[in-house]
Amino acid sequence: MEIRVNGNDVERALKILKRELQKDGLFKEIKTRSFYEKPSEKDRRKQREASKKRKKSLRFKKVMREDRK
User: pLDDT tens-digit profile of 45-66?
Assistant: First the structure.
């Protein structure tokens, strides 16, 4: 990953870097790895995240279908 600093605007470059790291999920990964997670808890968390993702994708699909009509 590369962030370029234009005109000594370090603050803006830092903001962009943080946004990119958040998109990549680095902060979330650090948070989950900071403590031990039992395998059963890990499975439950992954199932919760998958169901959230499914519900979110269904919401966007509904919006797209309504736009076509």
Answer: 999 999 999 999 988 777 666 6
* CA distance readout (Å), 53 to 8, 26, 48, 62: 39, 18, 9, 14
For residues 27 and 11, give the distance between their C-alpha atoms in angstroms, rounded to a whole number.
19
> Could you please report the per-residue DSSP string of 26-50?
HHHHHHHHTS---HHHHHHHHHHHH
* Cβ partners under 8 Å of residue 50, min gap 6: none
**How big is the chain by its Cα radius of gyration, in Å?**
18
Higher pLDDT, 23 or 64: 23
